[in-house]
Amino acid sequence: MAGNPERRAALVDAGIEVLAREGARGLTFRAVDAGAAVPVGTASNYFTGRDDLLRQIDVRLHTRLAPDPEVLAELMRAPKDRALVTALMRDILRRVTRDRTGYLALLELRLEATRRPALRESLTASLRGDLDEGMEFHRAAGLPGGDETVAVLYLAMLGLILEHLTLPGVLDGALPGVDVPDGLVELMVARIVPAS
Amino acid sequence: MAGNPERRAALVDAGIEVLAREGARGLTFRAVDAGAAVPVGTASNYFTGRDDLLRQIDVRLHTRLAPDPEVLAELMRAPKDRALVTALMRDILRRVTRDRTGYLALLELRLEATRRPALRESLTASLRGDLDEGMEFHRAAGLPGGDETVAVLYLAMLGLILEHLTLPGVLDGALPGVDVPDGLVELMVARIVPAS
Fold first, then answer.
1. pLDDT digits (tens, 9 = 90+) for B132-173
2. What was the pLDDT predicted at B3?
3. pLDDT confidence band for A3 (50 / 70 / 90)
């Protein structure tokens, strides 16, 4: 396997662009080469096969969509209450909206995982890791509610992100006076997270 | 346009299979013809173009995933409380699990809608219609909670269905003693829907 890390990162990012723009079936080594503007045949020197490319895309998306440690540290200075949970959820929405391409690629990975057992296994492990980490973070920070709170909030956020990034018009104006996504997030947290 | 309704339905159902199995990019008239085992060129006599096929798939999925009126009538004999909301949500999960292919095709339509304005418009209208209907149904039936309850529950159900149909292992065992999806649905409803 070729080892230039910058080129590998550029190829993986090109793969993410292809996934979001054309869907999983469009993700070929040739399309990745074209997207990264490198000679045909380059991607095949960096990935052992399509499953390897998909796994590296998952790893890269995990980094691209992760919280900024400074933003997180700043947010965590606030009292450990519902308002802080709302602020943390808004930060997630800001990140996935800013990197919409990355999140759409993650949705394509999910659907591709229904067809590819190796991807299903690696993606399940990485997303379960995120959920477990979320529960640990919530507990360690002393935020209100336990694991059940985090699980229900995780599902509502997943639904909100899916709807907002693919068909924003479904939610816009559905609740008069509640703006999307910020007002809706506040409402979700108020329902799901105990007051203290 | 050719007018044999059985053949049209068979072509649309074949399109749904192709969407779920191969993704949106695999959905060509040729693949639909092959899936429906009809001569090459048949689909082009039934659909004015790819947007028309996608729109007819959306309409058909709406019917395939709709509640069975008898099941619904039977459920609605119960007292109008949280337990009934839980039973209604479980019925949704039963339907999407039974027609997993149909729901995966709907997820493919969502992602394809990010690339095709005509599909985005028609799919937004049909899903917004479902949300509005859900609110009206909840209100008319005298179920606990108002439109905000229905909106938050809609999002949590959307997240649960997405996770459960694409990567069930993420949720399995995440909350010890809570089975997926039934126990998780009960938990969601208890959090989101007021007691009365």
1. 999 999 999 999 999 999 999 999 999 999 999 999 999 999
2. 79
3. confident
- One domain, residues A27 and A104: no
Q: What percent of chain B has pLDDT over 90?
A: 98
> Min CA distance, A76 vs chain B (Å)?
25
| Domain at B19, CATH number | 1.10.10.60
- Domain hosting A83: range is 66-192
Same domain for B168 and B124:
yes
At which residue do the structure tokens 């980490």 appear?
A133
Evaluate whether B185 touches B89 at the Cβ level (below 8 Å): yes
pTM above 0.95, yes or no: yes
Q: How far is A145 from chain B (nearest CA, A)?
A: 11
Q: Are residues A163 and A84 in the same domain?
A: yes
User: A18: Cβ–Cβ under 8 A, 6 or more apart, which residues?
Assistant: A26, A27, A31, A32, A35
Residues A92 and A180 in one domain: yes
In contact, A10 and A36? CB cutoff 8 Å: yes
- On chain A, the residues whose CB falls within 8 A of the CB of B115 are 21
% residues pLDDT > 70 (chain B): 99
Cβ distance B188 to A127 less than 8 Å, yes or no, reads no
Listed by number, the residues of chain B in 130-169 with a beta carbon closer than 8 Å to a beta carbon of chain A are 131-132, 147-149, 151-152, 154-160, 162-163, 165-167, 169
Is the alpha carbon torsion for A81, A82, A87, A91 positive or negative?
positive
Helix, strand counts (H, E) of chain B: 9, 0
For every residue of A33-96, DSSP letters joined together read: HHHTT--TTSHHHH-SSHHHHHHHHHHHHHHHTSPPHHHHHHHTTS-SSHHHHHHHHHHHHHHH
Number of domains composing chain A: 2
Q: Indicate if B175 and B146 belong to the same structural domain.
A: yes
- Subunit contact B22:A25, Cβ cutoff 8 A: yes
- Look-up: residue for tokens 């049209």? B8
> Is B25 in contact with A21 (Cβ distance < 8 A)?
no
Is A87 within 8 Å of A78 (Cβ atoms)? yes
